[in-house]
Write a structure and sequence with these properties.
Two copies of one chain form a homodimer. With about 150 residues, the first copy, chain A, is mostly helical. Helices cover about 70% and strands about 5% of the residues of chain A. Chain A is built from six helices and two strands, in the order ααααββαα. Chain A has a two-stranded antiparallel sheet. In chain A, α2 crosses α4, α2 crosses α5 and α3 crosses α4. The longest helix of chain A is centred in the N-terminal third of the chain and has 29 residues. Chain A is globular and about 55 Å long. At the A-B interface, α1, α5 and α6 of A face α1, α5 and α6 of B.
Chain lengths: ~150, ~150
């Protein structure tokens, strides 16, 4: 059990530098469009899943409501998101990507995918699928522990 | 290439929530010992690699010097680290784990490994090794891009 624990531990030690350095790479490439890693993540959720409330965005990103609201304000100032009436709840508006926001996210994503496609080139698709499944399982179990602690 | 890019992208989307939620779980369990995720990371490097300077700790953790110095100050106040003369450079001291620091880290690590050993239980060791290799390759390539950007 401890040997298995060490393997999971080694795996988790890889993820922090990956997040930090990915964020720096993405930040550098987003700067020209006036976006940050945070505003990009919010724009992504809205472009992919459609309009939702600020708390719903927070649930998807595992982030606090206040941070999300700031990102939404920044995106709205850039003309990339807008508020819409919520048919389900009169008092909690929906946030939606504007056509300009949807278009910008599509371009950003295409550039990113081209760059990402060149990475970890020594691993074939089968390895990438296994790595994805392992990370999904870890996420599920770490989330469970978080909710217990 | 774009399909491969999408696979790497899906993989990278898993790592951010994993880092955030792991940090919350670890924080909760460290609180009783007066440690944080940051001070724990510094103590770990020192316990595993031996005494080193603050800039060297920063290089290992991909963190700025100022943050490291604060963590070292906190650890020293807790009696878990101490400064030592640096035989190589008279003006840059070495930071070392004290016996109490080494012992505390060993206990923390044993507890963590026991907990981690129960995670992602549907994946055998072969899958964990593949996932680790993929993340190592991604880290290498993302670091390269960071240095270019």
């Amino acid at each position: 059990m401890s040997e298995r624990g060490t393997m999971v531990y080694d795996l988790l030690r890889q993820v922090r530098p990956l997040v930090l350095n990915s964020a720096r790479v993405v930040e550098a490439s987003l700067r020209a469009d006036g976006l940050t890693v945070g505003t990009r993540a919010v724009l992504e959720i809205l472009a992919e899943r459609g309009p939702m409330t600020v708390p719903d965005i927070g649930d998807h990103l595992d982030l606090a409501r206040q941070g999300i609201q700031r990102h939404v304000d920044d995106l709205t100032a850039l003309g990339l998101t807008e508020t819409r009436d919520n048919p389900a709840h009169r008092r909690s508006v929906l946030i939606a990507a504007t056509p300009a926001g949807t278009e910008l996210f599509a371009r950003i994503r295409a550039d990113e995918l081209a760059r990402l496609g060149t990475m970890a080139a020594e691993h074939g698709p089968a390895d990438l699928v296994i790595a994805l499944r392992v990370l999904e399982s870890l996420n599920r179990d770490v989330r469970r522990q978080r909710d217990l602690s």
